[in-house]
Specification:
409 residues; mainly alpha; Growth Hormone, Chain: A; two-stranded antiparallel sheet
Length: 409
Amino acid sequence: MKNKSFILFLLAAANFTHIMDIMIIMPLSDRLMKLFDIVPQQYTLLVSAYSSCAFVAGLLGAVYLDKFDRRTAFLFVYAGFAVATFTCSFVPNFYFFLIVRGIAGFFGGIIGALVLAIASDLFAAKERGKAVGMIMMAFSVASVIGVPTGLYLAIKFNWHAPFQLLGALSFIIWIISFKYIPSLRIHLDNQAKADAASGHIETRKEALLKLLNSKNARIALLLTFTLVVGQFMIIPFITPYMIRNIGFEESQITLIYFIGGGFTIFTSPFFGRYVDRFGARRMFNIILPISFVAVGLLTHLNVISDSVPVWVALCATTFFFVFGSGRMVPAQTQLTMAIPSSRRASFMSLNSSVQQLGSAMASIIGGFIVIEANTPTKELVYYNWVGVLAVCIGVSALFVFPLIKSVKD
């Protein structure tokens, strides 16, 4: 197929907007808590609302996505996401914001699944690590370009501006995708052949039950859940922790995402190439334990020292970004091989649903553990224990990953 590289770029761009839509809340967290006069527990509702609605959408996607041409499904879902994200810029208060964020999450939660399903249809298994690495690089670009730009616009104008920019960019990507993403029906053709061979047309209910009854699929979903919970217990509180506990100025928060994301722009494709060369399991067993060290260091900065230089804190956050996102490259590559193409979009949607459930639960758990100190600066207390719990949960992934088997398309 022609233009595969450009299509992969479009998929990465769509994933970028989806990731930025999730991440833009993080650097705005301290500002939003003050603006809406809410406590950390209420702030985590903004994070969990997006994730919870994305969870529901993922369940519906697991039933219906493989019934449609990949192109049709992608364009419909991405249009809904663009409209909802742009609408976020017009909400008048916290409660309306909460509702619209949920709608954006409903559509956004399926984007990642469709992007990976399309990439998996376009690229053979031996090239898939590189493709997944490119798509995962969207997280890095969102950190380097999207988040600092969004925070700058919020400081320069108001908090509505980042959502206006993101919504406009999503519309542009949709128009280009409409022109260049081709019809992808191989999964429909494969299912039609299977139906013809069996003499029975499989219903969506039967397809979903068959997917859920797959031991391989259940183990793969468990891997996703453990990795996401371990990650999202940490991320929502990075910004307020750095401002209140370490002493960052709000303008310095952009450095966290700019430097950390800048490194992962190079490390994500690097990890992807080595996944293709040495295998997903071997790379996962190397990257995951290193990510535990990064989590421990980041969440214990003010425990290690009462006065942490900005450059030391930036090294810790960059270390966390590189290996926190890096462990997802071999994991996602293995997941694309766990299910045949005829069920891949449904599985990836279900996987996305599990991701959102995990991130919602992680945010809520973290919100109940972390409290504000009764001091003028309102430092966050017990963030270090969140790090310990995140590592304990993540360790189980080392035992789950080897149980996932690769299947042929």
